[in-house]
Structure formats: structure tokens, C-alpha cells
Amino acid sequence: MRRSLIGIGLFLFFGAFVHETAAQDRLPIIDMHVHTMDGSVEDQIAVMDEFHIVKAFLSGTLEEVYSFTAAAPGRFIPSPMFPVYGINGFPDIDSLRVEYLAGRLQGMGEITSQYLGIPPNAPSLEPYFALAEELDLPVLIHIAGFGAPNPTFRLSAGHPLLLEEVLVRHPKLRIYLENAGYPFLHEMIALMMQYPQVHADLSTITRHVPREGFHDYLSALVRAGYGKRLMFGTDSAPSWLPEAIESIESASFLTDEQKRDIFYNNAARFLRLSEEEIAAHHQE
Ligand SMILES: [Zn+2]
To answer: How many Cβ atoms sit within 10 Å of the Cβ of residue 63?
Structure first.
């Protein structure tokens, strides 16, 4: 109970802080990590409107994803999440292709194979990376040194350098790693240095890691030269959004321009949004 009261207090505090900022600036944000299963369509759209989230990379089961896109056309980048422990396995590749060619799906992932102890270089993932490269899809994959409790989750399947063979085989793959591979800092720096197509999101790291530790990690990646390849995300639960925004806003080592890069510009470039769409986002 006490914990929840503190949580509500923090939510109200951060909510007031961020809401005021957003209301003053009205600068758009792209959320690169949203799941359908963490809230209703109405809740998700309401929180996006409140904090000026103009677009979100949305992953979940196809049925859920399609109900979100029907409710808010153009607002989401619809993507299949797989394989999900106890929910779904690896989707049929030919059926997926049909969905992409019809425009009903636009991204791939979150690929959650680490939750089944499957490393990114496993043969079972190869057809999906090949399809993503062929169709030029943005791909989100969970490769990191932590994850939700799950009996088949394995840290050892989340080492960033396990992605290297995939990047060599698919040099045009547009891929981003959850939580910038936290806490594998040096491996991430090496991966991003050698493979310029690698991007990263800053999602649950904004709240599951003590703030100082998160800022240390973010600061190290920016100092290493990758401030243009880090993208804001929440990993859902709309109630976490204020704290996620505040975690970037409060990073005193970032310039305003670097914050805008993380909140919007890097994702806009990575997603190849049109100039018209970017202009429209800044007029809303
Ligand atoms: Zn996720």
C-alpha cells in the first residue's frame, strides 16, 4: 500500500512537471516501444494525445495490433511481436509477407527470442531478418542484460555481440536494440561503431535502473558519439510515460538539441518519415 501511495505521488509529481513542459513546448515525441497488451486502445491514445506522442512503434499479437491501427490510422507502426512465451511462437513467414505487402504491418518485432533463451544468431530467426532486410522494415529486438522474470529467459542469449553475424549477413538491416543493450556498454559501443545501421531505444532502462546509473549509461553512449542513434521509448504502460520523459529531460549533460534528437529526430530519420509528415507533426 505504502509503495503504491508513493508511486501515485511520484506519478502526480512527474505528471505535473512533464505536462506543463509539454503544454508549453508542444514539441512532438515518437515512442519507439509500445505494446498492445499493456493498456486499452483508448488509454493508449489518450496518453499519446496528452504528451504529444505523435507516432509509436506498436507491437503485439496481430489481432490486437490491428484493433489499435483501426482506432488511430497513421498513428502507429504496426508490428508483430514474437515469439511470446505462452502466447505465440514463430509466425508463418509467407503469411507475414502478405501482411507487409498489403501495408497492414510496417515493422518487425519486438523480437522477444531472448525470453525463450534463443540468441539472435539462431537459425530459427534467420528468415525474419532476411524478410525485414528485403522489405526494408524497422526491427526491434530484445537484446539486453535484463528482462522480465520468465523461466526460459536467459541473459546469455542477450549479449549484443551475438547480433554480429546477423549484421554481417544482412548489412541493410534497420535494427534497434532494446535499452541500448544495458548494461553491456562496451559491447554496444563496439557494435555501434562497427555497424552504423545499429540503433537503440531507451525504454525500461529509464525506470528500472537508478536514475544516476541510467544517466551514466546514456552519457557514455552520447560521449562515444551515438547521440544520433538513440531513440525514446516507454515499453508501454501509459502510466510510465511521465517518468520516462522526465528521465531524459533531467539529463543535464544533454543539450536541448540532443534531447530533441532522442525524443523525435533520431526516430524520424530511422523510420524515414517524409518531410510532410515531420512538418505536420510540428504543426499539431
Ligand atoms: Zn518490450
So the answer is: 8
Number of domain units in the chain: 1
Give the Cα separation of 150 and 62 in Å (integer).
23
Boundaries of domain holding 203? 2-283
Residue 84's CATH number: 3.20.20.140
Give the Å distance between the CA of 47 and the centre of ligand 1. 18
DSSP H stretches of helix in 80-197: 93-101, 126-135, 164-169, 185-194
- In sequence order, what DSSP letters do the residues of 128-144 get, joined into one string? HHHHHHHHT-EEEE--S
- Rounded to the nearest whole angstrom, what is the distance from the C-alpha of residue 236 to the centroid of ligand 1? 7
Residues, CB within 5 angstroms of ligand 1 (ion): 110, 235
Q: What is the pLDDT of residues 97-136, one digit of tens each?
A: 999 999 999 999 999 999 999 999 999 999 999 999 999 9
Return the ∠ at Cα 133 (arms to 128 and 138), rounded to 5°.
85
**Sign of the CA dihedral with 125 first, then 130, 133, and 137 last:** negative
pLDDT score recorded for residue 21:
52
Cα–Cα distances (Å) from 40 to 43, 44, 65, 180, 218, in that order, read 5, 6, 11, 27, 31
- Amino acid in the structure at residue 256: D
Q: What is the pTM of this model?
A: 0.90
> What SS3 state is found at 85?
coil
